[in-house]
Structures are given as structure tokens and as C-alpha cells.
Amino acid sequence: MRGTAPVTAEATATLAEIRREDDSLVAVLSGEWNLERPAPRFAQLMESALSAEPTGARKVRAVNVDASALGTWDSSLLIFLRQGQEYCEAHQLEFGTEGVPERIASLLALARVVPERVTDRDEPRLSPVARFGLAGIAAWDAAHVAVTFTGEVIQRGAQLLRGRVRMRWREFWVVVQSNSSGALPIVTLIALLIGVIVAFLGVVVLKRFGAGYYVSYLVGYGMLRELGALMTGIIMAGRTGAGFAAELGSMKITEEIDALSTLGISPIDHLVLPRVLGLFVMMPLLVVYADLVGIVGGMGVSLAMLDLTPTQFVHGMLTAVELSDTLLGVFKATIYGLIIGMAGCMKGLRTGSDAGAVGRSATSAVVLGITLIILANAVIDWLAALLQI
Amino acid sequence: MTRAPFAVPGPDSAPPLAVRVPDGAPPIEVRHLTLRYGPFVVMRDLNFAVNRGEVFVIMGGSGSGKSTLLKHLIGLKAPAEGTILIDGEDFGAADAEARKKVLRRMGVLYQNGALWSGLTLAENVALPLTEFTTLGADAIGDVVQFKLALVGLRGFEHFYPAALSGGMRKRAALARAIALDPELLFFDEPSSGLDPVSASRLDDLILEIKASFGTTIVVVSHDLASIYRIADRALFLDIEQKTMTALGNPAEMRDNPPNDAVHRFLTRSSEGVT
Fold first, then answer.
1. Looking at the domain assignment, is residue B29 inside a domain?
2. Per-residue model confidence as pLDDT tens digits over A205-238
3. How many domains does chain B have?
4. Which of A17, A163, B93, B209 has the fewest CB atoms within 10 Å around its CB?
5. What pLDDT band is residue B14 in, cutting at 50, 70 and 90?
């Protein structure tokens, strides 16, 4: 990258200086004007010229340009002269371009042909309090949109069960395929590592108290009840939730969703339901798989670090873990599936129209998905504790 | 400068009524419509009607709100102020069922085609038919083949949109737009991104559809060659005045321009009326 030289008076003084001539000032241009070199700023030159004048000097009425010593030039000179025009307009001075070469004068005139567009804002400039209020209203609107979207998906889902909605089953099977074999490698890796980490921590801590044997409780209870579902949810929010948002966001930008709407086809039926339903079906299966892989990982570490046999590990785990723990994890998975699917689709359908909009939608789908998953996990655990599950 | 007969009445005048066709209300009528883009007012107080069976062009400079107006007409945006009547019924106030019935009678060709990228051309054209008709798979296949043949894409049934050129995608999108033989057909910048020959072929198709099916066609365009060729009437959206300033036959408007902006636009010049 090219460095930027500091703009010094010496560097720019050779290009332009202001000279007094009766009741006007003359901007004397000289040298080679090049965009790659620092150029003087018209207002600075004027101010230093005016401040150097003796008190009682005649009032300046006009600024003229003398380009007789000008060498080669490019846009940097035009920018300087444009600054001059604007300065003179702001200070009610006449700006004379008679001394400017014709080509430069015509370019300056061209830049002024189309007047500055005055944007017609109905709203006045807002105070910080008003902006804070508007931000609150925007947050409320976003919450309203989210609740409306959720309600609409639930309503259309219920109508699907009653056979009143025609869903595109091909889309559903594509989602199922993508979230089965397609997701297995990453789910396997993460679940295995989580099982290993839990077992390693358990062994290190529990051995201090001579309770290393109980590491199987920790691995089984942790994976089946909490970590299997939670980690799979986070993986799928990053993988599939972002994918849904990006896919629907691209469709929004290319007007494919508008094309559905103007045909009277609901994007919820056509695009959202197959995705949400596909994830709703696949998440529990993935979580059961992740639970098993995590337990195998934890068992491997336990067997390597403790004097345990596989039978002792499994037996120890089964004495502590109940079926309800497994079912609670699977229940969480279904909720997480709904959350990820709906967050991804909602963000995708609300994608803006600029180049970065799809990326922002995908990012916010992941953030929203993970946040809601952790929130849902806390709520479900709290309810489970209340119900003594 | 004398005011041309097709100049739009001032804002205080009553909204112009369309040339009513014998069988009732005009297919599209716009009353006192204001277009906004967020807090920005793009156009104010638009009043016009589209006659049945005509090609009606919405023209104006870039950023004048042509596509925004189209989005209002096809129901993608709700009017902030004013009303849009489709066959005399307020489209914006229609309930979901009535709205769906109106949409069923519309076809839209978007600027970039907007074909569903996950479906083949045949599936793209078939989707409206499977959604809105009780036709069997064979009958739908026949319609799909015919519509694709009509736009010169016979043999491309199993291609995905990504495998086609821009012009072919637009023609395929037209086949989808006319799949249900709509009474109202909307085109958003049909010639943008097309070479002159492809653009001319699309103009031919528009005129052919109008002549053969009697379809009412609304086109958003700033392509002068296309406007002169296809338009029965045109509406000019003036970006400076922020409202419509001319309505009439484009060739007549060119010969007798109601204002400088229309003259500059229709003669592709930067000079005013001499």
C-alpha cells in the first residue's frame, strides 16, 4: 500500500499561492498538479492570506485565478478550483475563471450542470432522545415481526397437519439429506471432542477425591441431558441456520421470493415449512448420534486414564443415568431444531438488498439461533428441575 | 411553451379518469398514490388509469420510482397514501382470499427474471399451474412445453436457470409469467441487460401477447426504442417534480413535449425545448 505523505505548507506552496491585487485576490497556480501528490486546500490558503493582511486593508470582492505558470494537471487541480468556487459562494465573493484554460473551465462548468440533489425528507433532524425512542420502536417492531413470523409458521404447520397446506416435499427431503449424511462429519468430530474433554476434566477432578470411577456418571449425564443437544444445536445453528439465511437471502435479492408472492404462493408454505420441518425431524436423530459418539469418546479417555473396564464404565453410567435424561435431551433437540430453522428462515426472508445483506443475515441468524438455544436450554432445565425430571 | 394535450393536470385538479371501457372499471386505476422509500418521498399524488388491452409504459429517469410504483401495482408494497384499484376493487384493502384471486390474474416478469434457481425451466413454468389448477401431470407438461416453445425455448425444459444466458432466462421467466394466461402482465425493465436483438425479440413477444390474448400490459422501461415500439400510452415520472408530469402516446409526446424533462427524456438530449 502506498504511504500518504503529510501535507506541509512547503509541499503545497509551490502549486498555489494567493496574491493581493487591488480589491481582489489572485490564486496563482504553478507546477505539476498530480493526484498522487498532496495538493493545497483552497480555504486554508485563503485564510492564511487574509490573516497576513494588515488591518484596514481593502475589502476583498473577488478571487481570480492566474494559470499562466501552470504545468501539467489532473483532477487534483479541478478539486482545488471547485473548493475555490464553493468558498467564494459561501463568502459572497466573485470567483473569476477567466485566467483558467478553457478545458479546465468547461470541466468545472460540467460539474455544476446538475444541481445538488436535495433529498426530500419529511422528518426533521432528530434529537438524541427521539433517536433513542425510534430505536426502541424499531426493537419493538423487530420483536413484533419475530412473533408474527413464529405464529404464522406454527399456524401454517398446524394447517399442514390437517392437509390444508401443500408443502414442497422435495425441499423437505433435500433438508433431511443435508442434515443427515451431510452433517455427520462435523457432529462426530465435535461430539467426540466434547466427550473427551468432559471425561478428561472429570478424571482429573474426581481422582483427587478418590472418586475416579464416577466419571462415567459425569460423561453419561452431561452428554445425554445437556451437552449432546447443546453442542449439536450450536453446530447446526452455525451450519444449517446460516445456510438457510444465506439461501433465502439470495432468493430475496434475486426477487425469487417476490416472484412467489406475486403468484399468491406463500413463501412460508413453499420455503420455510420444508426447512423447519426437516430440521425438526433431523435434530433429535443427530442428537442421539452425538450422545453416543460423545459417550464413546468419554469412555476412551476414562479407560486410558483409569483402571476401568468398558463394562464397569457402562454399568456405572447406567446406574446414574435414567431414560428421562435421554428423553429430555431429545426433547431439547426438537425445540432447538425449530429455533434454528425459524431463526435462519426469518433472517433470510428479511434480507436487505445491498451486497453485504446476505452475509449480515447469515451472521445474525447464527447469533440469534445460538442465543435462543442457550435461553431455551436454561428455561427447559429450570422447568425440568421444577418437575423433578 | 404551450401545454400539450396529454400534460397531466395540476395537483389541485380532480384525478383523471381513464377512458372507460364498455364493460366497466379500468383494470388498473391509481388514485393519489404517494411512493416512499423509508422516510424519503419518491413520488407524490400519482393519478392514472390503465385501459384494458393496452401496453402502458411507466417511464422516467433512474431513481424516479418506476420499479417502486410497479411493486405497488403488483401488491409487493402497500400504499402509504392513496389507493390502487384493480377492476374497481381496492387492492390494498383486499383480504387474503380476494388478494390471491387478483394475484392469480397477474403475471410478472422481473428485471432479472427471478426464476427459482433450484427448479428446472419446466418446473418453474409448472409451479403456478400446480398451485392454481387441477390439471394432471400430462396436461401441465403440455402447457409447459407450449409456453416454452412460445418464447423460443423448446428443448430447454430440463435446464436449470444458471445454465442459461440472460436473454434466455428472461424469456423463460416470461413463459412462467404467462403460464396461467394472465389478464394483467407486468414487466420490470424487460430490455435491461439484453443485446439489441434479444431486446427486440422480447418486444415482439410483448406485442404478440397483447394482440393474441388481449392482455393488459404494464411495462417499466427507460429504453426509448422499446417504448416507441410497444407503448400505446406512457406515463412520465419526473424526478425533479416528484410527480407524474405527462401521460399519453410517447411519439406524440416527443413531437409535442409538455415540458423540458419529457423532451429531454424522449429525445435523449440534455437540452430543453427550443
1. no
2. 998 888 888 899 999 999 999 999 999 999 999 9
3. 1
4. A163
5. very low
* pTM across the whole model: 0.75
Restricting to B residues 108-127, those with a Cβ less than 8 Å away from any Cβ of A are 108, 110-112, 114-118, 127
ipTM of the complex: 0.78
Domain-located, residue B177: yes
Q: What's the rounded Cα separation, in Å, for the pair B142 and B146?
A: 6
Q: Contact A249/A357 with Cβ under 8 angstroms? A: yes
Residue B223 sits in a domain of what CATH number?
3.40.50.300
Given B71, B114, B176, which is nearest A254 (Cβ)?
B114
pLDDT at B69: 93
Is residue B6 included in any domain, yes or no? no
Task: Please enumerate in sequence order all residues whose Cβ is within 8 A of that of A359, keeping only pairs 6 or more positions apart, or say none.
Answer: A246
Measured CA to CA in angstroms, residue B267 lies from B191, B224, B270 at distances of 19, 8, 9
Domain that holds residue B183: 51-71+105-267
Residue B83 lies in a domain: no
Give the chain A residue nearest B241 (alpha carbons): A120
**Cα B169 from chain centroid (whole Å):** 18
Angle formed by the axes of helices A323-349 and A242-253, to 10°?
Answer: 20
Residues of A with Cβ-Cβ distance to B39 under 8 angstroms = 121-123
Domains along chain A? Answer: 11-52+59-111 (3.30.750.24), 166-386 (no CATH)
Phi, psi of A11 (to 5 degrees): -65, -35
Return d(Cα A313, Cα A330) in angstroms, integer: 23
State the burial class of residue A271 (Cβ atoms within 10 Å of its Cβ: 0-12, 13-18, 19+). Answer: buried
